[in-house]
Model the fold of this input.
Amino acid sequence: METQEQIKEMVRQKYSEIAMQDKEGNEASCCGSGCCTTEVYNIMTDDYANLKGYNPDADLGLGCGLPTQFAQIKKGDVVIDLGSGAGNDAFIARAETGETGKVIGIDFTNAMIAKARSNAEKLGFHNVEFRKGDIEKMPVTSNTADVIVSNCVLNLVPNKDGVFKEINRVLKPGGHFSISDIVLVGSLPAKIKDAAEMYAGCVAGAIQKQAYMELIDINGFKQVVVQKEKPIIIPDDILSGYLSPEEINQFKSSGTGIYSVTVYAEKEKETGEACCAPGCCQ
Done:
């Protein structure tokens, strides 16, 4: 059984490799000659091209949703992007928050931070900052963010409860998050669950949808809404790297579902406001 630190290091190494390629290179890296569909971490991505602020250089095709599209970002907001990669969601968030707002991207991979900073410099963005750090222990002061977004990252983190606790700490009272992630309904075959590539590909590290939603609830978030849900179908040419044809058929007929969900929730507002007139407090 791998430890949490071993899992993190495996993810860090994989995403450092990905950072060295562009989107087209990542999509072709499965076998290089068109003999297979793609890597598993590319099969879930949604099309960003029509969103304001989209920059192709920052899009490595690694997401599983469009959280910034649902995040209700307002002009002047402070936005934090968890697992910011090459900066794709951060730059789209910047288009929403404008010159008067601020976007902070957090990633624990040196190569991704370097790529994101280079992209921000080329774009001339002075209110987008990328910080190296672990999203289980964010390098951010408490009560900083109006909005937190994240795209297909929490499933890569062993301590998901710790991330939600950090989200609660870092959000301002009344702030909210919109997070796209992968969840399960049913059980994965052991050969998939134990495969490092399938963990890095956002599948093996996913937890049950019910457990995921319970983590949001027990960490005190309110107004929880599933903004979007879509099934993720793993192509046979990827499954065949882990399962026999018979095992693939068994998996497909098992009823197990892999889903991309985009979830919105709010941090509670502060209570106990000061009295505004004599006799108003009890």
About this structure: Residues 26 and 91 are 21 Å apart (CA to CA). The two ends are 56 Å apart (CA to CA). Strands lie at 78-82, 102-107, 128-132, 145-151, 171-185, 207-208, 222-231, 257-266.
